[in-house]
């Protein structure tokens, strides 16, 4: 691990590549995107803490997207779902988006309902549970891939000499990430993260194995098209973000903002570059996450990055241990960790001169206002 200047960003893998990328985009105002999606995997008991009940997890992405765009509202269409412990990472991303008035794009890759805020509907579908082995129709995956490639071109032109932050909100997404990584031949068992303080590895692995078996993808000698993998055991967000990153990377920097899910997408990007989209520049893509993910002892994010290869894993050193809010302190105990581009937005703020202490105060200010509005 290397700590760079600004000192609030850590680089864990491909250090020189990470330094070069971060130095190139220091002081740049990025475009922030968040791709929303849904997998029925989210409804399984105990799979995720991003919503304390399976019913509330139906609306997590809708609520996080609405808060990211609108900030605090007295009567939101989709209120943030109560968490067992902690608070949504969208508070971190919203603080940065609000501070710098970042250009914001919200993509609907496949949800149960339409978002309440301005968004780009990519005409996708919510995914079936990963255990089904039939997550999405292949034609839908192909359509979403083309949409991603198209939007990557559009956003690269708009960003000019800056970069894109590609974030996501998919409850249950670390399980679909595990499935995609495994199908791509990467030994990721026991290495992924979760919103639990201690990752529910066995539950995830059992679901993935069931899905891969039903899809006929558990034979190591069975070479398969990456799009077919998403159709079998993925979710709609993954292929959209991969498409955007592939085409945008030809011209500008791309930060995949997240942990396990974005590592799976980088592995998918590498597979797609090898099979169908040879023009991508992988050196223009980095992973930006939180130290709560990068240093999570119940997973192995760094080891997973090495297994995937050729990817610089960076993280914000944001620390909530001194916060006066217990739901922020929960991050230091292993809850929540990441989501909605929290780590990526924090890194962007550091590159724009905001220290981790200043960012903590920015987040606390939004939490404070949120508490006042919800109590009134």
Structural notes for this entry:
The protein is α/β, with parallel strands linked by helices. The protein has one domain: 3-Layer(aba) Sandwich (Rossmann fold), CATH 3.40.50.10210. Helix content is 44%, strand content 12%. The chain has 15 helices and nine strands. A nine-stranded mixed sheet has the order 1-2-9-8-7-6-3-4-5, sandwiched between helices. Helix 4 crosses helix 15, helix 9 crosses helix 10 and helix 10 runs parallel beside helix 12.
What key phrases describe this protein's structure?
Rossmann fold; 15 helices; 12% strand; 376 residues; alpha/beta
Short description:
By secondary structure, the chain is of the alpha/beta class.
Q: How many helical elements? A: 15
Shape: globular
**Largest beta-sheet details:** 9 strands, mixed
Question: What strand line-up does the widest sheet have?
Answer: 1-2-9-8-7-6-3-4-5
Helix content: 40-55%
> What name goes with the CATH superfamily?
Nicotinate-nucleotide-dimethylbenzimidazole phosphoribosyltransferase (CobT), large domain
Integer count of domains: 1
Order of helices and strands: EEHEHHHEEHEHHHHEHEHHEHHH
By CATH, the topology is Rossmann fold
Helix-and-strand structural type:
alpha/beta
Level-1 CATH class name: Alpha Beta
N- to C-terminal separation? 45 Å
Q: Architecture, CATH level 2?
A: 3-Layer(aba) Sandwich
Report the β-strand fraction as a percent range.
5-15%
Calculate the mean pLDDT score and round it. Answer: 95
What's the SSE blueprint?
Blueprint: E1 2-3, E2 9-11, H1 15-24, E3 31-37, H2 54-57, H3 60-70, H4 90-100, E4 104-110, E5 120-121, H5 138-159, E6 163-169, H6 173-183, H7 201-215, H8 226-233, H9 236-248, E7 253-257, H10 260-275, E8 285-290, H11 291-294, H12 301-308, E9 312-316, H13 326-329, H14 342-351, H15 356-375
Parallel strand pairs: 3-4, 3-6, 4-5, 6-7, 7-8, 8-9
Antiparallel strand pairs: 1-2, 2-9
């Amino acid at each position: 691990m290397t700590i760079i200047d600004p000192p609030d960003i850590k680089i864990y893998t491909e250090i020189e590549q990470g330094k070069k990328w971060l130095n190139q985009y220091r002081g740049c105002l990025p475009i922030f995107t968040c791709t929303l999606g849904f997998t029925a995997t989210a409804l399984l008991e105990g799979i995720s803490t991003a919503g304390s009940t399976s019913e509330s997890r139906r609306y997590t992405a809708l609520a996080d997207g609405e808060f990211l765009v609108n900030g605090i509202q007295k009567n939101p269409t989709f209120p943030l779902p109560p968490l067992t412990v902690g608070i949504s990472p969208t508070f971190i991303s919203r603080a940065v988006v609000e501070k710098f008035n970042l250009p914001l794009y919200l993509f609907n890759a496949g949800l149960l309902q339409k978002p309440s805020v301005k968004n780009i509907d990519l005409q996708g579908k919510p995914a079936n549970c990963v255990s089904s082995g039939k997550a999405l129709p292949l034609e839908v995956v192909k359509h979403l891939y083309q949409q991603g490639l198209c939007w990557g071109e559009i956003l690269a032109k708009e960003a000019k000499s800056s970069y894109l932050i590609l974030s996501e909100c998919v409850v249950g997404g670390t399980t679909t990430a595990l499935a995609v990584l495994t199908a791509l031949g990467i030994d990721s068992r026991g290495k992924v993260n979760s919103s639990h303080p201690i990752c529910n590895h066995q539950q995830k692995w059992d679901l993935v194995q069931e899905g891969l078996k039903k899809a006929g993808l558990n034979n190591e000698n069975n070479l398969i098209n990456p799009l077919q993998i998403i159709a079998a055991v993925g979710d709609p967000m993954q292929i959209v973000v991969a498409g955007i990153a592939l085409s945008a990377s030809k011209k500008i920097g791309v930060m995949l903002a997240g942990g396990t899910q974005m590592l799976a997408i980088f592995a998918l990007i590498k597979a797609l570059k090898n099979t169908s989209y040879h023009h991508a520049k992988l050196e223009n893509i980095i992973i930006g996450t939180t130290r709560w993910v990068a240093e999570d002892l119940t997973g192995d994010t760094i080891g997973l990055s090495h297994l995937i290869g050729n990817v610089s894993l960076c993280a914000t050193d944001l620390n909530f241990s001194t916060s006066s809010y217990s739901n922020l302190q929960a991050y230091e105990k292993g809850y929540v960790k990441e989501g909605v581009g929290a780590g990526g937005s924090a890194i962007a703020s550091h590159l724009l001169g905001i220290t981790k202490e200043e960012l903590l105060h920015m987040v606390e200010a939004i939490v404070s206002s949120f508490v006042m509005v919800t109590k009134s």
